[in-house]
Design brief:
It is built from two helices and six strands. With 108 residues, it is an alpha+beta fold. The radius of gyration is 13 Å and the shape is globular.
Amino acid sequence: MNKQWKYNNYEIQEGLKPGSNKFRYFFIVSENNKKKSNYCVWIKDEALSHFDESNNFDTIISSQRENWIDWIKEKIDTQDFQNRALVFDKAGKTEINLSEMDAHITMD
């Protein structure tokens, strides 16, 4: 994971899924070195240009990261530790519970 920070006694690690050519940015929330949940920002290929015309992942992260951090903080504040994804596609954004998906998104 690229970055680490703390919020309300929780440790958060974040970064792009290693080696992926798809945009999947993960936040792993832990408490006392024990993982509580995974959150994923998943931007589908057809929506990448909405964030950056050149589809540059680093540019997208720089411009959107604070919004995603606010989303994570809101989940922590409400004690919502279900594994979730914020999915962006051509139609907009949808928040989904990862445990309800047929095909799971993993860090590996």
